[in-house]
Amino acid sequence: MFDRRKFNLAVCAALASAARPAGAQALYPSRPVTLYVGFAAGSATDVVARAVAEPLSRQLGQPFVVQNLTGAASTIATATVARAAPDGYALSVVSGALAIGPAIYHDLKYDVDRDLSPVGLIGSLPTVLLVRDGLPVRSLADFIAYARSHAGQLNYGSSGIGGSTHLATELLSDAIGVRMAHIPYRGNGPAGAALLAGEIDVLIDTVLLAAQSTKTGLVRALAVTGASRSTVLPAVPTFAEAGLPGFDASIFFGLLGPAGLPGGIVTHLNAELARALQNADVHRQLVDTGGLALTPGSPEQMRGVVRAELAKWQAISRKAGIQAE
């Protein structure tokens, strides 16, 4: 016997199913999402990840849980995401290290362009050229002239071989045509301490750490990367203002997942990420305190940034002969 009520229910169910995006994306996320971070708790990437995880959790109704998976300049965390199922539950907040890894490691188990899906840009952290107070230079122009007239006599510190500060300083050396001796340390902290102690002449560091160092009076900031001056160091000119346009060693941050991430999930996450970056608490934590320039962007824009960074760091690592130990 024909049951009109059951028939109507079946039709409604079929229509609802047809209206739902493929892969039940309309229900995403239906469980907690893991945000992998390739650096330790308290690092810049970790701070960015935790800052966006909180509003994303509220907006999407599921926890976005930060998991620190450290080692090998963040390539372990990236490889984990590259191998994950493309369902949106394994994502990663990445930094400029994403583009440095392939430049210094030649045995990576993933290809950045092939095995990962960009979701969106978050922002950019400026870096600053610092010199010890005893160096007789007051501007970037002074520094370039002094370095050229004292060829082979200056040295610089870094957070370690193949680290972002190492490659950034080699990029600067290449731009001004001067070679400086490299002294690697085990992290930004020891390198910064060495500059304060006058053990090294030059250090390129993040704007937040640079702001702390300059307050001692033992370190001088000459120029900051980025299109505009930093909110944390407003008195320091950009490299373009100081006479070296085109030089940029800023550190980008973004969100990505494994290759094959459904377009509906990517679009949804990108929109929610942009919304999270408008949050007042996020702005206060990342911009006012951390010195980050928020630059939300599309997946395509993020892919373009990553490709440009890959090309830049691969070129400089080859030229300077840099490879991971």
UniProtKB/TrEMBL annotation:
Determine the domain of life of the protein's source.
Answer: Bacteria
Q: Per UniProt, which keywords does this protein have? A: Signal
Q: Which InterPro entries match?
A: BUG (IPR005064), Bug_dom1 (IPR042100)
Q: Where is the signal peptide?
A: 1-24
A Pfam family that this protein carries is TctC
* Family that this chain belongs to: Belongs to the UPF0065 (bug) family.
Name this polypeptide is given:
Tripartite-type tricarboxylate transporter, receptor component TctC
Q: What is the lineage of its organism?
A: Bacteria, Pseudomonadati, Pseudomonadota, Betaproteobacteria, Burkholderiales
